[in-house]
Amino acid sequence: MSSGNNAPHPARLLISALPDFPLVRPGDDLAGLIGAAAVRSGMTPVDGDVVVVAQKVVSKAESRIVDLAAVVPTPRAIAVAAEVGKDPRLVEVILSESRRIVRKRPDMLIVEHRLGFVMANAGVDQSNVGPADGIERALLLPENPDGSAEGLRTALHARFGARIGVIINDSFGRAWRRGTVGIALGAAGLPALIDKRGEPDLFGRALRVTLIGFADEIAAAASLLMGQADEGQPVVIVRGLRWSAPALPGAGLIRPEAQDMFR
Amino acid sequence: MSSGNNAPHPARLLISALPDFPLVRPGDDLAGLIGAAAVRSGMTPVDGDVVVVAQKVVSKAESRIVDLAAVVPTPRAIAVAAEVGKDPRLVEVILSESRRIVRKRPDMLIVEHRLGFVMANAGVDQSNVGPADGIERALLLPENPDGSAEGLRTALHARFGARIGVIINDSFGRAWRRGTVGIALGAAGLPALIDKRGEPDLFGRALRVTLIGFADEIAAAASLLMGQADEGQPVVIVRGLRWSAPALPGAGLIRPEAQDMFR
User: Fold this and answer.
1) Which end of chain B is more exposed for a tag (fewer CB within 10 A), N or C?
2) Quick check: B1 pLDDT over 60?
3) Judgement on whether residues B174 and B246 belong to the same structural domain of the protein
4) In this structure, are B146 and B232 located in the same domain?
């Protein structure tokens, strides 16, 4: 899955948002938009850069949009919606994106997404989906976030020749702690997880619990520039990271159910 | 608890580790060491900087060290130790730092720490505590991480005159996701949590779920430079963040048990 990482820790990181990124529309060539914005701002990617892209713009470019008026909720969705106090059409969309409900409470629906993420509302979002034109839309997660990341990585590599990593990030709630933090929904070209188990510590003892959520930490750092509310800064470049472990896609960050004590 | 944050998102962050930080010993003046390292490297703090300090060096400076040879495990600790396959003396120390056990499995003890953190082993660490001199030591979390952060903030402010934030960070495992990420164990001088609820999105709709784990995202970003294994880079300065919300200590990030569906 992952292996050791002997790269030294960086002395500094520079994290920059691509300025004046345009609003993304369904069908847009997102890699093209990122490349153009990078050129415009003089921030073309170099080897070792990690390009972090907000889930919302990936989902929009991939047309992962549902017109709620066209959704006919099932009896189950209607029952769950009544229980949690949500729009039954939205609950229908959430359930259709989910394997199962993990917890439900008023205004709170935590599910296991079909991709394995345990998250609120299956990541289905009603804010910022489009103009307030009276059409109620919901935005779904990308079909395959690791694939989306790999597609962007390949396109940006073809354009700039740099060996980069790409992360699709999103804001997730957590058990036990308040507030959302950025996490890596998908990743390509970098180790999403770094395994330090068995490496000696400073005093020669073997370290024990040392799987590092590398891509999640990068995703959280990028979130500090993106914010959560708008599309103002959906693309962030992290420069200065080092890694030697082989690439591992973001799905490697999902804890298998058999190892999960909190599902 | 927290209020809106109208500060614009930063265009760039510069995250730097203080180089050549000395090994910290019990009783050391940590603020003094940080100040000296900052001066030495030409990285004296300026208004708006956030100084992130690894829990381990805070705990060491605060002499939060237990000699395991002096620990006499209770029958309960002996029973739990047998069940999870750990040293009974270590389990005794873990239990004495905990309110209760949340989950236990072989080689895994997840507890509610006396401060409210749900975490593995109550944060008690046996690696990197001191030289391999035959004495088995365990390192505990700081007595009061928010107080530790406030103490460092006050001392650094007195020395440099800058209005800074301070975060004590640690690496935590998570439910549902593999790998540890940096989180804020304590914070001072900045809003640990930022409340964006009620702010309009780009299209004028009110945002709903938008409590941001600000200090946790900063802690995760700093972890990318610190690593987890050693003390090589235990102090990291994050420059470029902006906030307008009032300061909220790190304890604000702990989800109250009554609101927690996963304890």
Assistant:
1) N
2) no
3) yes
4) yes
Residue recorded with tokens 């770094």: A194
CB contact under 8 A, A241 and B252: no
Question: What whole-number percentage of chain B has pLDDT above 70?
Answer: 88
Residues from chain B that touch A117, judged by Cβ atoms under 8 A, are 176
Q: Which residue has the tokens 């906030």?
A: B243
Kindly list the residues from chain A whose CB atom is less than 8 angstroms away from the CB atom of residue B130.
Answer: 203
Asked, for residue B260, whether it belongs to a domain, the answer is no
- For residue B241, the chain A residues in CB contact (below 8 A) are 224
Distances (CA, A) of B123 to A200, B138, B178: 19, 10, 18
Q: Select from B110, B139, B168 the last residue of a domain.
A: B139
Task: Return the pLDDT at A135.
Answer: 80
Distances in Å between the Cα of B34 and the Cα atoms of A11, B188, B219 are: 16, 16, 17
Give SS3 for A247: coil
A127-136, A212-221, B14-23: segment of lowest average pLDDT:
A127-136
Tell me the CATH number at A105: 3.90.1660.10
Residues B34, B49 within the same domain? yes
φ/ψ of residue A244, rounded to 5: -125, -15
ipTM: 0.93
Nearest Cα residue in chain A from B213: A179
- Cβ pair A127, A137 in contact under 8 A: no
CB contact under 8 A, B11 and A225: yes
User: Is the per-residue pLDDT at A6 higher than 80?
Assistant: no
Hey, of B2, B178, B196, which one would you mutate to test binding to chain A, going by the most A CBs within 10 A of its CB?
B178
How many domains in chain A?
Answer: 2
In contact, B169 and B219? CB cutoff 8 Å? yes
Among A89, A108, A139, which residue terminates a domain? A139
Is the separation of the CB atoms in B238 and B218 below 8 Å? yes
**CATH code for the domain in which residue A241 is found:** 3.30.1330.100
Identify whether residues B52 and B100 lie together within a single domain: no
Q: Are residues A124 and A229 in the same domain?
A: no
> Which residues form the domain of A131?
65-139
Q: Which residue of A has its CA nearest to B14?
A: A14
Q: How many residues does chain A have?
A: 263
Note the pLDDT tens digit of each residue in A178-197.
999 999 999 999 999 998 77
At residue B159, does pLDDT exceed 70? yes
B260-to-A98, A139, B182, B195 alpha-carbon distances in Å = 22, 27, 21, 18
Q: Are residues B153 and B241 in the same domain?
A: yes
Structure tokens, B116: 């409210």
pTM of the model: 0.94
